[in-house]
Amino acid sequence: MKSRGLMIIVAALTAFSAPPALAHDWYPAACCSQRDCRHLEEADGETVLEIPGGWQLWDGRIVPRGTAKLSPDRLFHLCELPDRRIICFFAPPGAS
């Protein structure tokens, strides 16, 4: 009986400790611990324009080139807090 209870506890802990976004498990913990990052979708109006010295987001925010990180999947990603402060921005190699 003890081992059955232990198995249930282990199963529950395993289920609740799985990362929420396995497709993007490469996000560094310093950028948001898998919770505040997303791929930017041009279809949703989330366009990124290259400007001198960085990128301009669809809402006018500017990301300086020196703060961007390299995107391993060749897509733009944004990690931000609920108040829209940017934590991390990922740009593909040679992004424009």
From TrEMBL:
<protein>
    <submittedName>
        <fullName>Uncharacterized protein</fullName>
    </submittedName>
</protein>
<feature type="signal peptide">
    <location>
        <begin position="1"/>
        <end position="23"/>
    </location>
</feature>
<keyword id="KW-0732">Signal</keyword>
